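Supplementary Methods. Inverse-folding protocol.

Structures were first reduced to a discrete structure-token string of length 445. This string, shown here, constituted the complete conditioning input.
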């Protein structure tokens, strides 16, 4: 291996060893599992040029030099609206920013995802690096980024404008240094990650998109915690239960069945369901709507429910118990009050389905991410969550979701914030870039 070779290690089609080169003992703080799996060859001009787990100094310096550009990108992206199902303005902006970063093959697919392909040296499955375009905030929400010292404040600043800005920084580094990768890299800005979007963007990528059969591994950048390595996907099933009845005047029709009562009994029944603490399994009655006026018995009440578990079998059992509780509540209401004007009926509608899955904790991709995070100075840990990685994990494709930057808080709120102290922020951004270089078999020219 030449002195210009950066590193070659895990790829979707196996481990790869360099023919020559010296082992840099401190390049990444590998766990015993990784040492058992393979050796890490590295041949820089001087062994001490690479600190434990960090990027080569030249790349680290260049990443730090991009700090002001990244902040400017963050502001521009965040202040471009991307409400649920209306991400087109931010998609167009992100596509142009990727072109400005030096990527030539940039498109927007049929679902609205931004797709940018950076070719590799070999015709092998692509490595996807993704962040989501959408926010949870409805159309018309005022979004202006403000700065308070080492903190940026705005709805969506960390979730997930930071992920998009990180991708731009990494693309610029790859292009500026003419870094060759064995695997092609597919940079993606997905739509529909949040809420009712139900992962529609990443679902399209893996089931209908042009690269659906060409993805070897997947890295999602989401959030501002560079210590958190999400290797397990929490599955969810979301329902809208429609309780329908005859309705009528609150005084004149008093005594007839009421869908509100059936809904209320359903909630009581659901909250009597026992679920395991391990695997963590949860439910929530989240939203109620319907009715005509304060002096009317409603003819329809809608109840939205969220159910989650990392275990598909537990999720199925919970779903069955919830629907049974709703059916029992409807039957109980029809038996308790007059049905002279009609009965209460139940119409369940599945409005969200996020599959569970995982990338094993001892998988090389997970170990690589943990090592890179620790080397950057973070207390790395593995975790579970519901992210774009749910889809590839459920399909058995190696996938992770990691954070970037230096932390933040109040996600999904109007006072969401992102911490941006320069040194820590750059360290957080270095984690994802180190994973990309390692995963794709990168070589410096």
């Amino acid at each position: 291996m030449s002195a210009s070779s950066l590193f070659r290690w895990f790829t979707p089609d196996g481990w790869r060893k360099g023919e020559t080169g010296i082992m840099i003992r401190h390049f990444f703080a590998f766990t015993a599992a990784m040492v058992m799996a393979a050796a890490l060859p590295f041949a820089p001009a001087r062994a001490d040029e690479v600190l434990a787990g960090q990027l080569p100094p030249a790349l680290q310096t260049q990443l730090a030099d991009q700090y002001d550009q990244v902040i400017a990108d963050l502001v521009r992206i965040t202040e471009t609206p991307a409400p649920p199902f209306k991400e087109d303005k931010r998609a167009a902006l992100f596509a142009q920013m990727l072109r400005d970063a030096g990527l030539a093959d940039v498109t927007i697919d049929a679902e609205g995802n931004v797709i940018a392909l950076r070719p590799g040296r070999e015709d092998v499955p692509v490595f996807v690096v993704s962040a989501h375009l959408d926010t949870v905030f409805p159309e018309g929400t005022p979004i202006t980024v403000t700065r308070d010292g080492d903190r940026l404040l705005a709805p969506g600043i960390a979730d997930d404008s930071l992920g998009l800005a990180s991708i731009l920084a990494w693309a610029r580094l790859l292009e500026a240094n003419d870094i060759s990768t064995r695997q092609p890299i597919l940079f993606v800005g997905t739509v529909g990650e949040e809420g009712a979007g139900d992962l529609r963007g990443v679902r399209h990528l893996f089931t209908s998109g042009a690269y659906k059969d060409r993805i070897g591994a997947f890295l999602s950048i989401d959030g501002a915690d560079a210590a958190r390595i999400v290797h397990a996907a929490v599955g969810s099933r979301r329902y809208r239960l429609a309780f329908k009845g005859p309705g009528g005047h609150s005084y004149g029709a008093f005594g007839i069945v009421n869908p509100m009562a059936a809904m209320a009994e359903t909630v009581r029944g659901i909250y009597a369901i026992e679920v395991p603490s391990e695997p963590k399994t949860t439910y929530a009655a989240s939203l109620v709507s319907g009715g005509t006026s304060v002096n009317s018995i409603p003819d329809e009440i809608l109840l939205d429910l969220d159910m989650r578990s990392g275990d598909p079998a537990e999720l199925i059992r919970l779903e069955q118990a919830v629907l049974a509780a709703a059916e029992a509540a409807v039957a109980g209401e029809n038996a308790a009050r007059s049905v002279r004007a009609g009965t209460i009926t139940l119409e369940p509608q599945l409005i969200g389905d996020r599959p569970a899955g995982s990338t094993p904790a001892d998988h090389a991709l997970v170990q690589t991410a943990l090592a890179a995070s620790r080397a950057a100075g973070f207390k790395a840990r593995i975790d579970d969550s519901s992210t774009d990685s749910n889809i590839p994990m459920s399909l058995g494709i190696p996938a992770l979701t990691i954070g970037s930057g230096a932390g933040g808080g109040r996600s999904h709120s109007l006072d969401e914030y992102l911490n941006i102290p320069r040194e820590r922020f750059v360290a957080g951004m270095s984690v994802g870039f180190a994973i990309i270089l390692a995963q794709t078999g990168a070589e410096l020219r």
